[in-house]
Amino acid sequence: MLVLGIETSCDETGLALYDSGRGLLAHALHSQVAMHEAYGGVVPELASRDHIRRVVPLTESVLREARLSLGDLDGIAYTQGPGLAGALLVGASIANGLGFALGIPVLGVHHLEGHLLSPLLALPRPAFPFVALLVSGGHSQLYAVGGVGDYALLGDTQDDAAGEAFDKTAKLLGLPYPGGPALSRLAERGRRGVFALPRPMKASGDLNMSFSGLKTAVRTLVRDTPPGMQRDADIAREFEDAITDVLVAKSLAALDTAGLSRLVVAGGVGANRTLRERLTDAVAARGGEVFYPDLQFCTDNGAMIALVGALRLERGVVQDYAFGVRPRWELASLARPESHASG
Ligand code: KG4
Ligand code: ZN
Questions:
Q1: Which domains does the chain have, with CATH numbers?
Q2: Which of 8, 269, 276 to mutate to test the pocket of ligand 1 (most atoms within 8 A of CB)?
Q3: Which residues contact 208 (CB under 8 A, 6 or more apart)?
Q4: pLDDT, tens only, 235-277
Q5: Considering 158, 230, 236, 255, which has the largest number of Cβ atoms within 10 A of its Cβ?
Q6: pTM of the model
């Protein structure tokens, strides 16, 4: 089954072609980061208008790359939520318009399900069940994943998400948006042991997280210490270590709670090198294994949406093209795909 995936939930337009038998055939991405940079964050109206301009040319580009045409498609998957309503509507409209015209099924996909299953795009593929650490700009969550559509929430952040903490801390250090990658680069020049930041809720005994206190502690440090490039790098080093410490501890505790040995890491913060190295070592020391998406598929992309589309559309969907978007949508509310094919 050949599926076109469309991602337009935030500030990247992602298109991809995924085939159930042959895997990922092509993908293309346009990032709006440069456009939003001047505003220090994503401007929803500008995001929607830019998605409108990009989707069709990017669709043509992935079809060309895979040497296929619209007539070869068996289905279309688009990000239905969560995300910015206007941005989501762009993908939803194009997916349904195209699907209606071609007479093929269209499926609205949960953005976080895309992130969660994105490690299945890489080899070796993790086998179910596994624990997933989902760390993106909007989420810091741990799930026990039993299969497609079987997601039990084990732990959640009580305030800021990990990516949000990276972005806000980066802003305090005067780094450009989005702050995660920039802060991580700065941390490489930082020295350990110069500053001491808290490890919020590391020993809370549950799997929940909280990162807003960390950002507040950085604000105090920035206010109370003499400014300088080396100071900022030292703060970045300690911030990255603190957040990584918490994420590693919670991930190990989640593996214990779920009685599992496989960990999957997904979402933009999963691109962080320090986090990857420390998680890999900590899980390996316990005889387990960690699976990551390719770096390019950690942040938002169309490939993960096309993948979920193929996994779910294979089971068949009832189609009426009466589409909608879900700007707020709980991942744990999803159900396993049922087979409509057998009638
Ligand atoms: O998953 P994603 O692309 O978008 C959401 O669905 O939220 O995640 C974006 C987040 C941003 O907060 C960004 O700063 C963070 O992921 N991020 C990183 C790194 N690369 C992206 N954070 C830390 N280190 C990185 N290398
Ligand atoms: Zn995302």
A1: 2-117+297-333 (3.30.420.40), 128-292 (3.30.420.40)
A2: 269
A3: 155, 156, 157, 158, 201
A4: 999 999 999 999 999 999 999 999 999 999 999 999 999 999 9
A5: 236
A6: 0.91
